[in-house]
Write a structure and sequence with these properties.
about 375 residues, alpha/beta, Rossmann fold, 2 domains, six-stranded mixed beta sheet, four-stranded antiparallel beta sheet, globular
């Protein structure tokens, strides 16, 4: 729809500002094919703004690299990405996803056990629509389960259902042996300390009027953590240090931070309550390659240090290959494949898995 509106007046120039960053790999490939058709049939020039170097390599005729508001390097993508000259370009090209260490073998029962989970949501005044159907999976301490699938497959609905931000229609959810579905309001509120959500857009999830310190203090104060204001201030300083930010960030407002810095603050806020499970909903999709690598490295360090479990929602199979121990593939609200990362992405059995892997290969 957005592309159709932009083309309505037959513009000679189309400015595409991160048009694929929130899309799954299948839809990304389809949109890029559409842009190529527009470029050829309409003779339209395209200014393509992106942080995804894989897309640049396969789509652009010329690349401009910017740093601090200045163009610092330009050239054909093959030449520029193969032999970057400027330090900023070198940093972007040289950013490598962290190598996933061998996953720990589960020695204890799963931290999270989801069985036969289904969710119906209102569709109009009289009807309900099933968005998740009969989903079952486990998440173990110290391990990462990635959830992948096309747009509308139910990934975010699954995260919300696990936290009971939407109420499951059927099924069970055991967390550390506790039946989460059976918890009343106050016990549920207390339980949510143990399972925290990190959002895709930290700029939207952080209150623009609150300083970094206030954003970190808020969940601690709400749950009665910290014996005094000075104790919470020490906790804030420790959290900032853990995510790679110094104490001077305490008084900063979100709009003064870079995207990577805002995501670090969002991670610190999620860690403020000492959770055992972190649900990461597209946490690096809006970041450039260098910041993406830094955030994934940070999350890996947090997992090693704290032993937390991750439910990692992503449309980037490259990230999933390097970060996740196991992968669950959703299609139209159903779990169609589940297993170790190498098996699912190396030789997918489901048609949805094969389509995602094929589209991912096409993009690069």
């Amino acid at each position: 729809m957005g592309l159709a509106i932009a083309l309505a007046n037959d513009p000679p120039l189309l400015i595409a500002d991160e048009p694929t960053s929130a899309l799954d790999v299948v839809v990304q490939a389809q949109l890029l094919d559409l842009l190529r058709v527009c470029r050829t049939r309409r003779d339209t020039a395209i200014l393509f703004v992106t942080h995804d170097l894989a897309l640049v390599r396969g789509f652009a005729d010329e690349v401009l690299v910017m740093d601090a508001g200045r163009i610092v390097e330009r050239g054909p993508p093959g030449q520029l990405l193969a032999a970057p000259v400027h330090p900023r370009t070198q940093a972007l090209v040289g950013a490598r996803l962290p190598v996933r260490p061998p996953p720990p073998k589960p020695t204890e029962p799963p931290l999270l056990e989801v069985r036969n989970l289904s969710v119906d949501l209102a569709a109009g005044t009289r009807h309900r629509m099933r968005v998740l159907a009969d989903i079952s999976f486990d998440v173990h301490i110290g391990r990462t389960l990635a959830v992948v699938g096309g747009s509308g497959s139910g990934k975010t609905s699954l995260a919300r259902a696990v936290l009971r931000l939407v109420e499951p229609t059927t099924g069970t959810g055991q967390f550390g042996g506790i039946d989460v579905r059976g918890l009343a309001k106050e016990p549920l509120r207390a339980w949510r300390r143990q399972a925290q959500l990190i959002f895709q857009d930290p700029g939207g999830s952080l209150d623009p009027r609150m300083s970094v310190a206030d954003s970190l203090n808020e969940p601690m104060a709400a749950h009665g953590l910290g014996s005094s204001e000075s104790d919470r201030a020490e906790r804030v300083a420790a959290l900032l240090d853990e995510v790679g930010l110094d104490a001077t960030f305490s008084n900063r407002l979100p709009h003064t931070l870079s995207g990577g810095q805002r995501q670090r603050v969002a991670i610190a806020r999620a860690l403020a309550l000492d959770p055992r499970l972190l649900i990461c909903d597209e946490v690096v999709s809006a970041l450039d390659t260098e910041s993406r690598t830094q955030i994934l490295t940070l999350l890996r360090q947090v997992q090693a240090r704290r032993g937390v479990a991750y439910l990692f929602i992503s449309h980037d199979l490259g990230v999933v290959r390097h970060f996740a121990d196991d992968v669950a593939v959703l299609e139209a609200g159903r779990l169609v494949e589940l297993g170790p990362t190498e098996a699912v992405l190396g030789a997918p059995r489901s048609s949805a898995g094969r389509a995602l892997v094929a589209a991912s290969t096409h993009l690069t």
